[in-house]
Design goal:
The chain is α/β, with parallel strands linked by helices and about 725 residues long. The chain has a domain of about 240 residues: Anaerobic Ribonucleotide-triphosphate Reductase Large Chain, CATH 3.20.70.20. It has 28 helices and 18 strands. Helix 7 crosses helix 19, helix 10 runs parallel beside helix 11 and helix 16 crosses helix 28.
Length: about 725
C-alpha cells in the first residue's frame, strides 16, 4: 500500500488518540493512547517498513541508495556495527505515547525516495547518531548508544535528524550574526541568512549597529531608512529558504532598547501595521541594558542614541559600547545625536506587543556579560534566546570580501532527560559521553558559506547541553513545581551538568593538546570562575532533595579545587558548554515535559496539518501524579522564574524561559491583582522580577485566551485516571 496511499480515514489510531480527551465516567481514558500506539504500528509502521533478509543487506541498500554516508559506516568494523544494533534491539525500547511514535516516524525516519516506505526504526536512527558522534571510537559509540536508547540523552533535532544521512542539512541548531553599519555588511548578512536557513536551523541577527531612520548617509541628511527595510529583506530571505524542505527557515532580529528605531521596530510586529513595514514571520528580540530598568523604575525620560554618531565617538560599533556605564556621558556629549522618550512609554509598548504577539524576546545584556567567563563581549542571542557567546565584528569591502574576519556563532545542542538521567548508573560518565558527542558536531562543522561563522566555531568549539522533563520528574516524585525542594533540586542538577561538562572539556583539551581561543584571558584561566564553588557549599540542605540525589556524588570543595587546578594547567576545549533550549518534538519523542517549564495542559492538544488534532497526555500521568501537574497558565510565573534562576547560576549561556499567562488571570495567583483581566503592568512586573532574579533572557510570552470552547479532559476538574 505505502505511506503515500495510506487512507487516514480508514486507520483507527487518530480516533483512539482523540478519545483520550473525552472523559468516561469522570476518568481520563489513558488506555486509549496505548491502544493508539499499537494501532499505529499495526496499521502504519509495520506494513510500510521495508524488509531486508539480513542486516548487511539493509546497510548496503542504504549506502547504495545514497541514504546514508558510507564514510560513517567505514569508520568501524562491520561486525561491531551489527553487534551494536543488536544490542540496541535487546533493550526492547517501546514508545510510551502515541505522540512520541507519531512524531518520530513522521519527522525523523529516513524514507524511500518516493516517501512510501520507512527505512529505519528508532534503534537504527540511534545507531547512526552513535556511530557519527563517536567518530570511530567503539567504546564511545557503545556509551552514546546506551545513553540514547535509555533516553538519557537526546541530540537536538538537526543532529538527530541528519546524523549519518547522505542528503542532509547541517547538524548544528542555529546561528548568530551581527550586521555592522554599512551596505556591504547588510548585503553579506542577507546572503548569509539565505545560506544558513537553507542548511541549518534558525538564525538570530542583531541590527543594533545600523544607523537609525533619517540619519545621514555620506553627509546627506534623512537618507537612511533605518532597520525596518533590512528586517523586510531578512524576512523574505527566511521565507524563501529552508532546509531541504524539512525545516522552515526561521529568523529573529534583535535591537537595543536605546536604538532610535526601537518604537518602529516593535510596531512592525503589530497586526495593524502598514504592509510595507509589517513583519509577519520574523521573531523580534530587544537587548536591554541595566540602565533601562533604572530609568523605568525611576519613571524618567530616556535618551536613544544614534549608532552612527556613537560609533564615530567611541570607535567601535554601537553593540560594543557599555550603555549602562556610558549613558550619562553620552547624554552630555554634543557629538552624539540623541532622541528623548519616556522610559515607561517604551515599557508599555513592549508589554502591549507581548500581549498581542508574544514578542519581543528580552535579553538582559548586562546580566549576561557580568556572568560571562570569556574575554570579550556578548552582544545578542539566537532564535530561542539561550545561546549567548562573545562575538567580534567583521569588516567587508565592496567585493564582499572579508578585510577583517570577525567571529559569529553556530550552536549545536543536546538535552538530558532529567527523569532518566537521575536513574543513570553513572551520572558523570553519562554527561561526559554527551559532551564528547556535542564536541564532535562542533569539530565536524564547517559553514563554508558564512566564513565568520566557520571562523567563530573553529576558535570556540562551543556546545550547548541542556535539560528537559523537569516537571515530569518533579511530578513523579510528588514534588510541587516551584516549591523550595524543586528549586534546590534544579540548582544541584545543573551544578552537576556544569561540573561534568567542565571535567570532560578539560579531558578533551588534554587529549587534543588544544584549548579554545584566548583561554588564557578567561575567568577559567585566572581561577576566578571557581570562587563561587569554593566559597559556598552547594550540597543539598533539604532532606527530600538529599534523598533524590542518594547514590549520586555531589562534587565537594576538594573536587572543585582539583578541577580548577587541572583546568588552569591544561585548559578547556569548549568555550561554552551549557544552554537550555526549548524542546519541542524531541520532548514528545522522549515522552517528557518540555525543557524546565510546567506543562500547559493535562492532555495537550496539537494541531497537525493534515490530520487534525492530536492529544498528548502529560507524561507519567496517573492518579498518583495528577495532583502535581498544575498547568503553567495556572502557575505563578515567579515560581517558573525562580526555577530557571536556580539553574542559571550554573549555566554559562542562557535558557529559553517562556512566560505563560491567561487573558483572565485566576484569582489568588498574583497579590497585586484586583481585576482578573491581564494588563501590561502584569507583564512589566514579571519582566522586572526576572531581571532582579538574575535571569539572562526571556523567550515568548504565551497568553491563553478564554475562548477555547472544547470540553475535554482539562475541563473535568474531578477527573481521575
Amino acid at each position: 500500500m505505502g505511506l503515500n496511499n495510506l487512507d487516514v480515514t480508514n486507520v483507527s489510531y487518530f480516533k483512539l488518540n482523540n478519545e483520550i480527551n473525552i472523559p468516561v465516567d469522570d476518568k481520563i481514558p489513558l488506555n486509549k493512547d496505548q491502544e493508539a500506539i499499537k494501532a499505529f504500528f499495526d496499521e502504519n509502521v509495520n506494513p510500510n517498513t521495508k524488509k531486508f533478509d539480513t542486516f548487511k543487506d539493509h546497510i548496503d541498500f542504504m549506502i547504495d541508495g545514497d541514504f546514508i554516508e558510507k564514510e560513517v559506516v567505514d569508520e568501524y568494523p562491520f561486525d561491531f556495527i551489527e553487534s551494536l544494533y543488536n544490542y540496541l534491539l535487546d533493550q526492547h525500547f517501546k514508545f510510551k505515547s502515541f505522540m512520541a511514535a507519531y512524531k518520530f516516524f513522521n519527522q525523523y525516519v529516513i524514507k524511500t525516495n518516493d516517501g512510501d516506505l520507512y527505512l529505519e526504526n528508532y534503534e537504527m536512527r540511534i545507531l547512526f547518531n552513535a556511530l557519527l558522534f563517536a567518530h570511530g571510537d567503539q567504546d564511545l559509540a557503545k556509551s552514546l548508544a546506551t545513553e540514547m536508547i535509555a533516553q538519557r540523552y537526546q541530540p537536538a533535532t538537526p543532529s538527530f535528524l541528519n546524523a549519518g544521512r547522505k542528503r542532509r542539512g547541517e547538524y548544528v541548531s542555529c546561528f548568530l550574526l551581527q550586521v555592522t553599519d554599512d551596505m556591504n555588511s547588510i548585503g553579506r548578512t542577507v546572503n548569509s541568512a539565505l545560506q544558513l536557513s537553507r542548511i541549518g536551523g534558525g538564525v538570530g541577527i542583531t541590527l543594533s549597529n545600523l544607523r537609525e531612520s533619517g540619519s545621514p548617509i555620506k553627509g546627506i541628511d534623512n537618507s537612511s531608512s533605518g532597520v525596518l527595510p533590512v528586517m523586510k529583506l531578512l524576512e523574505d530571505s527566511f521565507s524563501y529558504s529552508n532546509q531541504l524542505g524539512q525545516r522552515q527557515g526561521a529568523g529573529a532580529v534583535y535591537l537595543n532598547v536605546f536604538h532610535p528605531d526601537i518604537i518602529d521596530f516593535l510596531s512592525a510586529k503589530k497586526e495593524n501595521a502598514d504592509e510595507k513595514v509589517r513583519v509577519k514571520t520574523l521573531s523580534l528580540g530587544v537587548i536591554v541594558p541595566d540602565k533601562y530598568y533604572e530609568l523605568v523604575r525611576e519613571d524618567k525620560d530616556m535618551y536613544l542614541f544614534s549608532p552612527y554618531s556613537v560609533e564615530r565617538v567611541y570607535g567601535v560599533p554601537f553593540s560594543y559600547v557599555d550603555i549602562t556605564k556610558e549613558y550619562d556621558n553620552m547624554v552630555k556629549d554634543d557629538r552624539i545625536k540623541k532622541y528623548k522618550i519616556e522610559a515607561r512609554e517604551l515599557e508599555d509598548e513592549i508589554s502591549k506587543l507581548q500581549q498581542e504577539s508574544g514578542y519581543p524576546y528580552v535579553l538582559n545584556i548586562d546580566t549576561v556579560n557580568r556572568d560571562n567567563p570569556i574575554d570579550g563581549k556578548v552582544i545578542m542571542s539566537n532564535l530561542c534566546t539561550e545561546i549567548q557567546q562573545v562575538q567580534t565584528p567583521s569588516e567587508i569591502n565592496d567585493a564582499q570580501e572579508y578585510v577583517k574576519m570577525g567571529t559569529d556563532v553556530s550552536c549545536n545542542l543536546g538535552s538530558t532527560n532529567i527523569l532518566n538521567m537521575m536513574q543513570s548508573p553513572d551520572f558523570g560518565r553519562s554527561i561526559r559521553s554527551m559532551t564528547r558527542a556535542l564536541t564532535y558536531v562542533s569539530d565536524a562543522s564547517n559553514i563554508v558559506a558564512v566564513p565568520s561563522v566557520a571562523h567563530g566555531n573553529k576558535l570556540s568549539h562551543s556546545v550547548g547541553l541542556g535539560a528537559m522533563g523537569l516537571h515530569t520528574y518533579l511530578a513523579s516524585k510528588h514534588i510541587e513545581y516551584g516549591s523550595p525542594e524543586s528549586i534546590e533540586f534544579t540548582g544541584i542538577y545543573f551544578l552537576l551538568l556544569n561540573y561534568w561538562t567542565l571535567f570532560e572539556s578539560n579531558k578533551i583539551a588534554q587529549d587534543k593538546g588544544e584549548t579554545f581561543y584566548n583561554f588564557e584571558k578567561s575567568a577559567y584561566a585566572d581561577g576566578s570562575y571557581f570562587d563561587k564553588y569554593l566559597n559556598k557549599d552547594f550540597a543539598p540542605k533539604l532532606n527530600r532533595v538529599k534523598e533524590l540525589f542518594d547514590g549520586i556524588d555531589i562534587p565537594t570543595k576538594a573536587d572543585w579545587e582539583e578541577l580548577k587546578k587541572n583546568i588552569q594547567k591544561y585548559g578547556l576545549y569548549n568555550e561554552y558548554r551549557l544552554a537550555v533550549a526549548p524542546t519541542g518534538s524531541i520532548s514528545y519523542v522522549n515522552n517528557t515535559s518540555a525543557s524546565l517549564q510546567p506543562i500547559t495542559r493535562l492532555v495537550e492538544e496539537r494541531q497537525e496539518k493534515k490530520n487534525g488534532k492530536l492529544y498528548f497526555p502529560a507524561p507519567l500521568l496517573s492518579n498518583d501524579t495528577i495532583g502535581y501537574y498544575k498547568s503553567a497558565y495556572d502557575t505563578d510565573m515567579r515560581k517558573v522564574i525562580d526555577i530557571y534562576a536556580a539553574a542559571q547560576k550554573h549555566v554559562d549561556q542562557g535558557m529559553s524561559l517562556t512566560l505563560f499567562v491567561r487573558s483572565e488571570i485566576p484569582e489568588g495567583i498574583y497579590e497585586w491583582k484586583t481585576d482578573p483581566k491581564q494588563t501590561t503592568r502584569d507583564l512589566s512586573i514579571l519582566r522586572n522580577y526576572a531581571y532582579y532574579q538574575g535571569i539572562k533572557s526571556l523567550y515568548y510570552v504565551r497568553t491563553f485566551t478564554e475562548n477555547n470552547d472544547e470540553i475535554g479532559s482539562n475541563e473535568c476538574e474531578s477527573c481521575s485516571i
